[in-house]
Design the sequence.
């Protein structure tokens, strides 16, 4: 099969899993404006063009400086529900059939919105996802620029709702916030049976040390981003041996760094590491998952087999049962068999 057979159409139709998607990062300008008006919040912009013009970032911290204030428009349960439903409709158009959705409770509880409001709104959308042909679940992330105590408090707030939460993650500003800062709460989450992941963003200060801590000291099940691992062959061998997935996000990388890190993604794929492609914060990086796969495939001249392997990897390292994985992987095979 030649590279010319990797069309947008082919990628869109492939049944996909998305494993690195921040619900708060799916807040499109039109919904942001509508919620601002509904809730009587002045966001300083009144047109889509003005909102888009405020999206100026070239690093993780400059992105987060735009990202968090925008969340103010999310106030009641229906706002969280609408946000998640809007993403799920786009995900359906992108061929997503399974998604593990990150959410950041502290970004809302810290501004006076209750944990219950957030999780109930998001969970209502998760329950409705099958009506769109999507299997969805929630991953609760701690903000690493908040204290370890705040993460523990958040974990305790979540426990009464533990059946609504698939796993636990860690995101936000990595600078000076290493994985080990959260060792206690992650040990507790693991002891309680949650699978865990952590962001190890691209080209951070101490990237390799953070990846090492996440893998060897915390014992994560997946690394979010994590492409700097190519700098350490021992750690590459470790993730390969343990089947640990990396959730990479090409378009996002291109915004917060110099390039999409495609060279690293392809190198890891070729070595047999379970790398996956995801959209991260699609409303801000203007790219949903099919486009992320497409831009990577085009720039690095990936074959169909390579694209399909990336998609297979996502199901394989997802946090669903082996039976559910087998059903999804069979759907991928069927789809591929029908494409010439
Ligand atoms: N929160 C939303 N997107 C993020 C990213 N790419 N890295 C860290 N925290 C985030
Ligand atoms: Zn992310």
Sequence:
């Amino acid at each position: 099969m030649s590279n010319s057979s990797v069309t947008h159409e082919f990628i869109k139709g492939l049944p996909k899993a998305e494993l690195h998607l921040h619900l708060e990062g799916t807040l499109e300008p039109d919904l942001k404006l509508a919620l601002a008006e509904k809730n009587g919040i002045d966001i300083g912009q009144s047109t889509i063009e003005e909102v888009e013009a405020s999206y100026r970032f070239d690093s993780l911290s400059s992105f987060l400086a735009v990202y968090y204030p925008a969340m103010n428009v999310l106030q009641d349960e229906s706002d969280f529900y609408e946000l998640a439903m809007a993403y799920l409709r786009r995900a359906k158009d992108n061929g997503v059939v399974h998604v593990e959705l990150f959410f950041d409770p502290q970004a809302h509880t810290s501004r006076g919105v209750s944990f219950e409001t957030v999780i109930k709104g998001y969970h209502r959308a998760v329950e409705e996802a099958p009506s769109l042909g999507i299997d969805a679940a929630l991953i609760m992330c701690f903000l690493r620029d908040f204290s370890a105590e705040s993460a523990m408090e958040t974990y305790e707030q979540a426990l009464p709702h533990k059946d609504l939460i698939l796993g636990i993650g860690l995101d936000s500003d990595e600078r000076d916030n290493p994985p080990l800062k959260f060792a206690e709460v992650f040990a507790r989450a693991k002891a309680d049976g949650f699978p865990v992941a952590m962001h190890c963003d691209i080209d951070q200060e101490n990237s390799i040390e953070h990846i090492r801590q996440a893998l060897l000291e915390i014992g994560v099940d997946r690394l979010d981003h994590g492409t700097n691992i190519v700098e350490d062959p021992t750690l590459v061998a470790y993730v390969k041996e343990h089947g640990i997935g990396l959730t990479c996000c090409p378009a996002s990388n291109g915004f917060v760094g110099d390039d999409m890190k495609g060279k690293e993604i392809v190198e890891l794929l070729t070595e047999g590491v379970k790398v996956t492609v995801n959209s991260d914060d699609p409303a801000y990086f203007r790219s949903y998952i099919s486009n992320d796969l497409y831009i990577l495939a085009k720039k690095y001249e990936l074959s169909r087999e390579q694209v399909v392997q990336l998609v297979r990897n996502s199901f394989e390292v997802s946090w669903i049962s082996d039976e559910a994985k087998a059903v999804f992987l069979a759907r991928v095979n069927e789809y591929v068999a029908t494409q010439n």
About this structure: The beta strands are 16-22, 96-103, 135-143, 165-171, 197-200, 222-225, 245-248, 275-277. The domain at 3-338 is CATH 3.20.20.140 (TIM Barrel).
